[in-house]
Amino acid sequence: MSYFEKLKNLLGIDQSVSTAEKLASTLGGTIGISLISWISYNITGASGAALIVPSMGASAVLVFAVPHGKLSQPWALVGGQLSSAVVGVSCFYLVPNLYLAAGLAVGLAIGIMHVLRCIHPPGGATALVAVVGTAQIHALGYGYVLTPVMLNTFIILVTAIVFNSFFPWRRYPVSLMRFADAPTVTDKKSARFIDKQYIERALADIDLVVDLDANDLQRLFALTLEHAETPTFSPAQIKLGHYYTNSKHGAEWSVRQIIDEAQSDDPKKDMVIYRVVEGQGLQSADSCTRTEFAEWAVRELFPTHTENN
Q1: What's the rounded Cα separation, in Å, for the pair 243 and 124?
Q2: How confident is the model at residue 245 (pLDDT cuts 50, 70, 90)?
Q3: CA distances from 66 to 62, 181, 296 (A)
Q4: pTM of the full structure
Q5: CB of 144 within 8 A of CB of 183?
């Protein structure tokens, strides 16, 4: 490992995403915070921190830059923000010492988010602002939970759902994704099967909160092993009715389903007819040789919901 690679590991510099993903995240954050400010002002007429809680900036980073992350999902966003706001206001009223109240607000907010299973890092800032915020914030009392916190939270939630729906490779919440990278493995005889109970026990052994659940990790392990066993597609692997993606980023990403095929005496002349079911060229259909399709496909995808069309 080179010195530069060691430095990247030390600093935690991760792999970069596509330009399209960067632009989508940037645009989403801009729209989200602008809408919160505009709608909140027109509803409440407030200003400053009473109009928009500063932690919404951090929430925007999660729901627009990491929309598929566990810490970004709706229950994490709503539950984490509201429970933290209640904790913060309570600490302000019940603990006379400002320094202790500030520490307890963040610490107890973390604790209650653990208990409610809604870990959302910006919640810590929401709790802290309730204690160390301006007199305008303190004057709101428990009204702080409703306005600005709850109002801001629901605006950014709706905005994230609508905004992410315009980009076929991302959906919010993640359960709205129509295709997954690997199926939920149930065949215990499969070489790619790792029972979720073992994954959950491994997570318990590590005893850390990770932004993936056992189902995500099970699919990740299955896909990793599948890539290791068959790094590229062969024409024989392209099956009627199955779904495949080119794994390209941004607007070029697409998912195709094989809807018909024509066998030939010469395998190189075998033809397939496909329909684009997600991404670029949605609902269009075309044909090519099975070999050409295998060269286009990077991995197989599996519907997360029953396809009716």
Answers
A1: 42
A2: very high
A3: 5, 17, 27
A4: 0.78
A5: no
